């Protein structure tokens, strides 16, 4: 079955994406395994071809904040490679993942060879702006809207008619900027209406359309 690519895998010309894969070395990661560590040098990128990952950042107060969920087609760790800096976040496997490891020098060479550096930089900047816009939007929403927005955002990366988020309520509450109790209360209301179903470290979006209806119009 064909997997629809996300991120750079969708944006780049097919010949560029295929060249990146051909130059990389396949590596599998098990659920829960660390792919990239915050603070490490940007020595390589990972091309995700199967599975889903989560991106988290360790804050100065010791809290680990959930930033994003990504799926097949994503290039992971590209920011540290492009600006030759250290990793700004941790990346962990939410499910079993297949990636292709590509050294930083090879990655940059291929971008130059196919004349796509500008496209990649615009993508990275766009992702940063997207994160800022999400934080600004969440600050204006009531608790119900924050929960819906966070669930829908992460569900879009997982895909499918009934997306399953393999994330804890603590992680989701932090991403929504809510206390654990406030998040659980709103999630309970959605569960009572059969909009979501919950389990241990698992939230299933049973009815994405009804979940969207909880967001303010306009």
UniProtKB/TrEMBL annotation:
Source lineage? Bacteria, Bacillati, Actinomycetota, Actinomycetes, Streptosporangiales
Q: Name one GO cellular component term.
A: cytosol
MF GO annotations: DNA binding; DNA-binding transcription factor activity
- Organism per entry: Actinomadura macrotermitis
Keywords, in A-Z order: DNA-binding, Transcription, Transcription regulation
Question: Which intervals hold domain HTH crp-type?
Answer: 141-209
Q: Which PROSITE patterns did the record assign?
A: CNMP_BINDING_2, CNMP_BINDING_3, HTH_CRP_2
What range(s) does the Cyclic nucleotide-binding domain occupy?
8-111
**Origin: domain of life:** Bacteria
UniProt xrefs under InterPro entries: cNMP-bd_CS, cNMP-bd_dom, cNMP-bd_dom_sf, Env_Response_Regulators, HTH_CRP, RmlC-like_jellyroll, WH_DNA-bd_sf
- Does Lipoprotein show up as a keyword for this record? no
The protein in question is named: CRP-like cAMP-activated global transcriptional regulator
């Amino acid at each position: 079955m064909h997997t629809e690519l996300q991120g750079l895998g969708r944006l780049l010309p097919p010949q560029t994406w295929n060249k990146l894969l051909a130059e990389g070395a396949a590596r599998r990661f098990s659920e829960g395994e660390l792919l990239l560590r915050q603070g490490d040098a940007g020595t390589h990128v990972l091309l995700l071809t199967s599975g889903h990952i989560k991106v988290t950042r360790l804050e100065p107060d010791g809290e680990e904040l959930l930033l994003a969920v990504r799926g097949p087609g994503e290039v992971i760790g590209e920011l540290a490679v492009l600006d030759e800096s250290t990793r700004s976040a941790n990346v962990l496997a939410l499910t079993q993942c297949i990636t292709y490891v590509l050294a930083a020098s090879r990655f940059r060479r291929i971008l130059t060879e196919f004349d796509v550096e500008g496209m990649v930089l615009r993508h990275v900047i766009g992702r940063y702006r997207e994160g800022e816009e999400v934080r600004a939007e969440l600050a204006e929403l009531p608790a119900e809207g924050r929960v819906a927005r966070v669930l829908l955002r992460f569900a879009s990366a997982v895909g499918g008619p009934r997306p399953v988020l393999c994330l804890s309520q603590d992680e989701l509450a932090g991403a929504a900027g809510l206390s654990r109790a406030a998040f659980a209360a709103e999630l309970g209301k959605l569960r009572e209406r059969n909009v979501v179903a919950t389990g241990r470290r698992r939230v299933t979006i049973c009815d994405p359309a009804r979940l969207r209806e909880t967001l303010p119009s306009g």
